[in-house]
Structure formats: C-alpha cells, structure tokens
Specification:
Strand order of the largest sheet: 2-1-3-4-5
Largest sheet: 5 strands, parallel
Oligomer: single chain
Number of helices: 8
Order of helices and strands: EHEHEHEHEHEEEEHEHHEE
Shape: elongated
Number of strands: 12
Helix content: 40-55%
Structural class: alpha/beta
Strand content: 15-25%
Bound molecules: calcium ion
C-alpha cells in the first residue's frame, strides 16, 4: 500500500483528500503545521508527499527544499495561484509536479499515481535493484555476480564494467561511453584497456570466451550485452 504524506493546513481540503485517497488504496498521513512536515517524513518515509505552499510554521517552499536535501521522494505542490507555479516547479525547489487550487480530487489522484509510477524508476537508477540478463545477475548492493546461479568473483573494474553493460543490456555502447562510465571522462589511456577488460570478463562469464554470446562485439563501434 503506497504511503502518502499530506501537508495541508486547510481541514476541509485535507479531510476530503484523505477520504478519497484512502478509498483509492493509499495510506495517508496528514499534518497541518509546516513544522511537523519533516519529522513526519522521517517517521513515515512516505512514497510521495503532497505539499501545500501556504502553511503555518514553515512554508511549503522551505519544506520542499529541506526534503530535497534529504531525499528524492516525489513531491506534488498545491499552489493557490497559477502565478506561483514557476517559482515552485521551475526554480531550484525541485518539486516534481504541482496542482493549482481549486483542484479536482480526481486530478490530484491522477497526478499522485503518475508520480508514484516514476518513483520506482528513480530507485532503480540508484542501483538498488539487482539487474539480470542472459543468465547473468549483478547485485551492486551486495557486490555480487552470479552466472547461471553460480557466484563469480570479479575485480572492481570488471565488476563495474559488467554492471554497466548489464544495466544497458540490448543497447550498443560505444568504446567512448564505456570508458567514460568506468574510468571517467578524464581517462587518458587508450581503448586497449577496455578491450583487455572485456576479454577477461568473457573468460569468466562466457560458456566459450572465443565465441562470446553474452558480451557481443559490435564491429567498429563497441559492445552490447545480450538481453536474452
Ligand atoms: Ca494552506
């Protein structure tokens, strides 16, 4: 059940929203004072925050900044006037979306669902989710590689290279892209280093390193990790 934190001082709006959102299957925590917003976020760790701009105690603007310095949680701002929107979404505030008051509950629910759909993607990009393709599985959190279910130990650069290839499985990656990603854009060595690492990786993860099926060479361009 997705957890929402609703920060809104107007009781009539908050209660109506909470009832609708709970009926939609969300777990809703409501705070009405701006000063309670950050402690509530820390306690609840919601999947999304709906944040009113005008609040007693601490403004929605300040709360939004404070949240952004701590988390990538999706934030939908509630603003009273269209004129506030640029300030809220455009500038350094970092809100993900906004809804202008008066708004229909249906519209806000649609925005919340859209915000939640984007959220798991962001988590994946933070490397928390193991990736798997073509019988190879890489778990960055545990720093583990499995090939057909068996653990394989890799040196750090080979691990990074394999993880990066796997995270982009099915896509052709140029030598330049791979070198930037693994060795950094200020790397001054030649691309042979990359080819040597690829060769070593193949001896560890390919059934036949001389006829690779997982790490495929795309002649004149770079490499591609097979996505099946
Ligand atoms: Ca308000």
């Amino acid at each position: 059940m997705p957890k929402l934190l609703l920060v809104e001082d107007e009781k009539s709006i908050a209660e109506g929203l909470a009832i609708t959102l709970e009926a939609e299957g969300f777990q809703v925590a409501w705070v009405k004072d701006g000063l309670d917003a950050i402690p509530a976020w820390e306690r609840i760790r919601p999947d999304l925050v709906v944040l009113d701009l005008m609040l007693p105690g601490m403004s929605g603007t300040e709360i939004c900044r404070a949240l952004r310095s701590r988390s990538d949680v999706p934030i939908i701002m509630l603003t009273a006037r269209e004129a506030e929107v640029d300030r809220v979404v455009g500038l350094e505030l970092g809100a993900d979306d906004y809804v202008t008051k008066p708004f229909s509950t249906r519209e806000l629910v649609a925005r919340i669902k859209a915000g939640l759909r984007r959220a798991p993607l962001a988590e994946q990009l933070e490397d928390e989710v193991p990736v798997e393709a073509s019988g190879v599985r890489v778990d960055r959190v545990r720093h583990e590689v499995e090939v057909e279910g068996s653990r394989v130990d890799l040196p750090p650069k080979e691990f990074e290279l394999l993880a990066y290839l796997l995270e982009h499985a099915g896509r052709v990656l140029t030598r330049g892209q791979l070198i930037d990603a693994i060795w950094g854009s200020d790397y001054v060595g030649d691309t042979k280093t990359l080819d040597v690492h690829i060769r070593r990786l193949r001896t560890r993860i390919e059934p036949d390193p001389h006829a690779p099926v997982r790490i495929q060479t795309v002649r004149g361009v770079g490499y591609r990790f097979a996505d099946r």
